[in-house]
Amino acid sequence: MPRQVLDESTKNRAHVLEASERSFSGHFPKIRKTIAKVGRDRKKASMVLAHLAVVNHRLPKLGSPVEGTLNAIETLLADSGVIELSDAVMIHAANRALNCKAPCHRKGKNSFADAVMLETYIDALRVSDAGKRFAFFTDNHIDFSVTDGNFKLPHPDFASSFGRIGSMYFISLAECLRKIDPSLVSEVEWMATQEQPRGISEVLVAHELLFDQVWHNRHKYHEWEIKRGKVKVVSGRNGTRYSRST
Fold it and tell me: Is there a single domain that holds both residue 152 and residue 180?
């Protein structure tokens, strides 16, 4: 494991947890608003809202699923052999950045850290014993893959470092694992094919859209009834009223 990955993981842990907690807590006002809007049983709605208030208050102390995931990742990283960054790797990465070579070819983006990761991999290839197989996996196909066509192919700026056997390039973890051990892939592939449930924010947006659509449909149907004479508009002292014809 490159030293850079360990350092970045340690440095960003608190930020990731804070962002996750903030995102999770940010849903509670929307949930309360939705329950207040659609809840017909006031007693049950009050009980649900009170429980949500308790959960929201205790959330920072309870932790989150993200924290467990980060702990598992840190355990894996700690069990890996650390690859210290060499001067040669840093120089080669700097040359990539200066010459705008992938992954530093996109204007307005600092991809030096990506270049360091790539050069660390290439350096490991250079000093490895004959017969060893290497694989480079990334989901950042925008910076590492070809700019058009098949994203599964590495960018031409460093494509010479990859082949089909000794050094392989992947943008799919399932495909990478299949090359290592096909028996490991079945569960990963099954999970990848399953439709992921929508988050609470997506559900709330869909609910608001449905509410507006239903209101619009009823409003337009009411207009149609008035035009056809099925409903009469009656004006009086108490304002406008509607009378349905029998």
Answer: yes
Using only C-alpha atoms, what is the Rg of the chain?
Answer: 29
Lookup result for tokens 């399953």:
194
The reported pTM is: 0.59
- Whether the CB-CB separation of 16 and 24 falls below 8 Å is answered with no
Query: Dihedral of CA 32/35/41/45: which sign?
Result: negative
Asked if residue 70 lies in contact with residue 16, where contact means CB atoms within 8 angstroms, the answer is: yes
Residues 11-63 have pLDDT tens digits of 888 888 877 766 666 677 777 777 777 666 777 777 777 777 777 666 655 55
Alpha-carbon distance values, 142 to 41, 112, 153 (Å): 51, 15, 11
Does 73 share its domain with 18? yes
CB of 149 within 8 A of CB of 175?
no
